[in-house]
Write a structure and sequence with these properties.
Length: about 300
């Protein structure tokens, strides 16, 4: 099992791994479930779960507050941080992009409220950020695409270990089995706190989506009502209860039933969705990767598979 989080996180010591990269070094490919599902456009339904769970841990939320432009350019930050991580999975040189993502984090350090230090390349902090991406693949696929078997969930977790190795950061905090990962995930949810970063990032849910300046506020309230209703049911529905609590997001059994009906509908129409053109089904980096390897994943989307990361 990983080291004790409380003691390990306070070391605040960066631990990059400079292992030799060869042509046979592990990487993900078209036979992996992560390739199959991570770049699916339906993953956007889990964007708030991904970003939110990541930043509900005090040290990571403070790192974003101290070193990011999230408060002045939220969408710009997402556009700059998302593609390099996507390229770590789908590019022809995933090790380069993994190391690039890692090196972005080298100068990110500081202190939290109790005066203890943090460093973004401390393995406990860096692995938690990665774990939220593994969770996104597991959660979005099982909720909005199709139910995964236990074996497929194990496979995605194992492929996630290959994905993490691409970054070149110590894996001392990484759970070794899928069952350990589930236990780790629950323990981390119980550590959630209302960081300034996550309170800001979920403000649009509590207050409503801000409107364009040219549209009068009363008009925008009417126009945005369906969008806000969708966000407060579907987007909030994807969040763990611990996150809803620390972010003060309203939820009840009625909304839960609506969310489950929405998710079930998405799973039912999956055979129709997977008939869309490949460009419409995948984000650009994933689409280009599938084209590059000459594989059409759409016939594989509805049936369980047992590929392994290569």
């Amino acid at each position: 099992m990983p080291l004790d989080f409380d003691s390990a996180i306070r070391e605040a010591v960066p631990m990059p791994v400079d292992d030799e990269i060869t042509a046979t070094s592990p990487r993900l490919g078209p036979d992996s479930l992560i390739w199959k599902y991570y770049g699916d456009v339906r993953g956007l339904l889990g964007f708030q779960r991904l970003a939110g769970t990541e930043n509900c841990i005090e040290q990571l939320g403070k790192a974003v507050e101290d070193h990011s432009v999230i408060f002045s350019d939220t969408l710009g930050r997402a556009r700059r941080s998302g593609p390099p991580i996507m390229k770590t999975v789908y590019s022809e040189d995933p090790h380069h992009w993994g190391r690039t993502v890692r090196d972005f984090h080298k100068p990110i350090k500081g202190t939290v409220a109790d005066g203890s230090r943090y460093h973004a390349l401390n393995p406990e902090l860096f692995y938690w950020a990665h774990a939220t991406f593994v969770d996104q693949v597991l959660y979005v696929t099982d909720t909005f695409i199709r139910r995964l078997s236990h074996e497929e969930k194990v496979q995605i977790f194992e492929e996630g270990k290959t994905w993490y190795r691409l970054y070149g950061v110590s894996d001392r905090s990484q759970p070794q089995t899928y069952e350990e990962f589930l236990e780790y995930w629950q323990q981390m949810l119980d550590r959630f706190v209302p960081t300034r970063t996550i309170r800001y990032a979920t403000g649009y849910i509590r207050k409503g989506v801000p409107g364009p300046r040219r549209i009068p506020a009363p008009v925008w309230r009417v126009l945005s009502a369906p969008l806000n209703a969708f966000i407060r049911t579907v987007v909030v529905g994807t969040l763990p209860p611990q996150m809803r609590e620390v972010c003060n997001l309203d939820w009840d059994t009625k909304k839960e039933r609506r969310f489950q009906r929405f998710a079930a509908f998405f799973r039912r129409v999956n055979p129709l969705v997977t008939r869309l053109p490949l460009r419409a089904l995948y984000l650009p980096w994933a689409y280009e990767a599938w084209r590059r390897v000459g594989v059409d994943p759409r016939p594989l989307m509805n049936a369980p598979t047992t590929g392994l990361a290569r």
